[in-house]
Amino acid sequence: xxxxxxxxxxxxxxxxxxxxxxxxxxxxxxxxxxxxxxxxxxxxxxxxxxxxxxxxxxxxxxxxxxxxxxxxxxxxxxxxxxxxxxxxxxxxxxxxxxxxxxxx
Length: 104
Ligand code: FES
What we know:
The chain has about 100 residues and is mainly alpha-helical. The protein has one domain. Helix content is about 40%, strand content about 10%. It has helices at about 15-30, 40-50, 55-65, 75-85; strands spanning about 35, 40, 100, 100-104. The protein is globular, with a radius of gyration of 15 Å.
């Protein structure tokens, strides 16, 4: 049971702690490659997040293609969203399969 005088937690537990650590590193070194499938540096992903103010991983992927290959970098995109916006990332996927970086 959680004591009623506990401070409210605005953040859920980080589901990918390694990705959270990498997100901090990406902000310190924006030239690091976040998505190796497409060679997308963290700076590009961070710019998309800041300019669109999105919390949705699929939105970031649609704009810059990061996360549209093997998808193993999606937790890093989500962690960067969390780090930049201070909000929980939205994992909602777009409708339909994705082929060649384009939703069909
Ligand atoms: S590393 Fe980003 S899609 Fe594979």
